[in-house]
Amino acid sequence: MPRFNPITDIPDLTGRVALVTGANAGLGYQTVLQLANHGAKVYLTTRSEAKARDTIARLEEANPALKGSGRLQSLLLDLSLVTKAKAAAEEFLRREERLDILINNAHLPATDFEVTAEGLSTIFATDHVSPFVFTSTLLPLMEATAKLPGADVRIITLSSDMQSTALATTKFDSVEDFRDKCGPDDKANGYSAKFARYAQAKTANILFAKELQRRLDEAGVPILSISLHPGGAATEGFENVLRKMGFGLLWPLASWILMSPLQGVATPLFAATSPEVRRDEEKYKGQYLVPYGKVGKPGPVASRPEMPGQLWELTEKAVKEILESGKV
């Protein structure tokens, strides 16, 4: 078990409000369970009411004490479109007066190349641009929460060690880069291009968290922004990826080698709740963590000093165009 055990080491979160995206399965589900078990009121996001009901039912079965406690709440969120991500965040603002912990967990894995109705590659929209909008829309509430007595507000963005494989040619100079196929047209749906696009999106997660922290520090806002690689865990999502790649027969072996889901959430929950992170915030804020809660070194692209600011400014430009005209 990691040095941070979510079952025993998460502090009492009574009175705190948390929001976890992509929470109907895998690490998101386990993250919600542990936060709620320790007293937090947790909003779990799903893409449908049916999934929300099913997820809450499974959480209440895992811990019957949660039933009727009010600690489990749902929020519909579709990250494939910027406009829907903003609308979901605005719905949350209508429902809550504080937000202490935001965990950007939802993501789209390596997949075929598609462009959304808003003009972005589906994976880059889902994994970076929409979480950027979702977080930015919620940020004023989190800033207000940070002013409350005893507050400890944190924004956690899950990345992946796949970010280290981002193509050296990765750049964020124009909105065209947000629909980069990462390969020639006739190979856009090959494994190399699929995983290159995923690595690009996961690199963006690190850059976003880093630039967000810089801006918070500049404004004197005591919110912590941290990105991380949770580690390879035996989740439903990982199994689905293996099966789609034609390697389903490897799942029994992979599930034996990989972390359990509980181990997989140790680093995200360490970042989101551990008193150590706040006590030693200069060590952790804006950093990229790896299992279990250690400060890691991002890959070459994510380490370029000019990239966080470039990506932030370009994302703002793309979002502005989408919200004003519906497309970039």
Automatic annotation (TrEMBL):
Descriptive protein name: NAD-P-binding protein
Organism superkingdom: Eukaryota
Molecular function per GO: oxidoreductase activity
UniProt keyword annotations, A-Z: Oxidoreductase
Lineage: Eukaryota, Fungi, Dikarya, Basidiomycota, Agaricomycotina
Gene3D superfamilies found in the cross-reference section: NAD(P)-binding Rossmann-like Domain
A Pfam match: adh_short
